[in-house]
UniProtKB/TrEMBL annotation:
Subunit structure: Heterodimer composed of Spt4 and Spt5.
Keyword line: Elongation factor, Metal-binding, Nucleotidyltransferase, Protein biosynthesis, Transcription, Transcription regulation, Transferase, Zinc
Species classification: Archaea, Methanobacteriati, Methanobacteriota, Stenosarchaea group, Halobacteria
Binding site for Zn(2+): 8, 11, 22, 25
Keyword Disulfide bond: no
Name of the protein: Transcription elongation factor Spt4
């Protein structure tokens, strides 16, 4: 993933750099200030997804400022 991607401050979903709103939750609160990410492909089977409260597959930032 490129570091110029934007992350939603609400759901931590990684979005394209030219996104104006989050593709997952629709929030317009996007930031470039984030660190680390995890790709969750089967959230229903993932302990990490449960801990992060993620129920949709995708890439999520671990730390968002």
């Amino acid at each position: 993933m490129a570091s110029n991607r934007l992350v939603c401050r609400e759901c931590h979903r990684v979005n394209d750099a030219d996104a104006e709103t989050c593709e997952a939750c629709g929030s317009s609160s996007l930031t470039e200030d984030w660190a680390g990410y995890v790709v969750i492909s089967h959230p229903e089977e993932s302990e990490i997804a449960r801990e992060m409260q993620v129920d949709e597959p995708g890439a999520y930032a671990l730390k968002v400022r």
